[in-house]
Amino acid sequence: MADPYDTGILFERRGAAGLVTLNRPHALNAVTHGMVRALGAKLTEWADDDAVTRVLVRAAGGRAFSAGGDLRQLYELRQQGRIEEAIAFWRDEYRLNAHIKHYRKPYVALIDGVVMGGGVGVSIHGSHRVAGDRFRFAMPEAGIGFFPDVGASWFLPRLPGELGTYCALTGAELDAAQACACGIATHRVSSERFPQLIEALCGNVSVDAQLSAFAENVDKKEPAGHWDVLDPLFKAERVEDILASLDAQAEAGGPSAALCGSVAATIRTKSPTSLKVTLALLRRSGKVNFEECMRMEFRLACRVAKGHDFFEGIRSVIIDKDRTPQWRPATLQDLGQAEVKQHFAPIEVELDLP
After folding, report:
1. Sign of CA dihedral 211, 214, 218, 222
2. What is the pTM of this model?
3. In this structure, which CATH number among 3.90.226.10, 3.40.50.300, 3.10.450.50, 3.20.20.105 belongs to the domain 9-214?
4. C-beta neighbour count of 50 within 10 angstroms
5. Which ranges of the chain have pLDDT less than 50?
């Protein structure tokens, strides 16, 4: 049954489960403001319904669980001078992320396909994250002039070592085995068994018991080749120092030289502002609670929404597809620490969380 606002999200009561389907396969299930509002309202309804003992979230289409927020919609709002509506989207989205994080019933995300950005926000905060064969996780926001949001500032610094920093600055993808190894996914199940798993989870047997019965053993898999070399290079407090370490390793030669050079080149394609703001966010958010992480993200979103790079990034990747963004400022050296710090200053109307 479709929701009454036709927002590209479907809700169904099936046995003991509330079943959610992200239903915009033509747009890689990109999350819209309407979908955010509809899911938030339905989760509130099901939280008070004793007949619903768990929530399952899946996606239509097979290619993507969700490739992120609807960037084209945000770009059009900016072009129409309706930036406050974009800010309202982030406010509601971040409140939904917090709702999922603290949901008092099992929340099972069945992720088979790409999961990025806004799709991460409606899945990774759930109590159970099941990775299928096509699972691909990434937070590539720095490449479009944004920063890892939807609660990524909470979980990225809490991944092993400097994996979160590496993912945030490079936009690197993790597959199912890598995600299970670092805790982004809690279970690995073959894609062909997802329909059976959903039916089993709609019964009255506990979620943990059913997932244990379906889950496959996963061998530990490092997030990248020569990870023992890469990991310590991402410990620095400045992006410039991380790049210098990568460059030095590349110039030194050896088996990891080509990889370090490639990683450095990838980072240099990103928005300088996004890189510096992202690293500052991760270093701050590793020391505070989830709610404060979300408030920081909202402050950043409000400021980025009124800047240049985010919409230039969308133009380059989504609208014109020329992939030649003109970042402002153009280099890391052109952005001082004082300007980065200003992004985190309190705003007039802070994020209020349920």
Report:
1. negative
2. 0.96
3. 3.90.226.10
4. 5
5. 1-5
